[in-house]
Amino acid sequence: MKTLQLTSSDRAILVRSRFFARLPHSTVEAILVGATLSSHEEHDVLFRQGDRIDDVFFVLSGLVRLYRLGKEGREADIAVFTKGEMFAENAMFLGHRVTASAEAAEASIILRLDSRKLRQLAAADPEVAQAIIEHLCHRGKMTEDLLAEDRLLTAPQRVASYILSHCPNGSTSFSFRLPFQKNVLAGKLGLAPEALSRAFSTLRQSGVTVKGRMIEIRDRQALERF
Amino acid sequence: MKTLQLTSSDRAILVRSRFFARLPHSTVEAILVGATLSSHEEHDVLFRQGDRIDDVFFVLSGLVRLYRLGKEGREADIAVFTKGEMFAENAMFLGHRVTASAEAAEASIILRLDSRKLRQLAAADPEVAQAIIEHLCHRGKMTEDLLAEDRLLTAPQRVASYILSHCPNGSTSFSFRLPFQKNVLAGKLGLAPEALSRAFSTLRQSGVTVKGRMIEIRDRQALERF
DNA sequence: CGGACTATTGAAGGATATCAAACCGCGTGG
DNA sequence: CCACGCGGTTTGATATCCTTCAATAGTCCG
Question: Closest nucleotide (CA of B154 to C1')?
Answer without folding.
Answer: D17
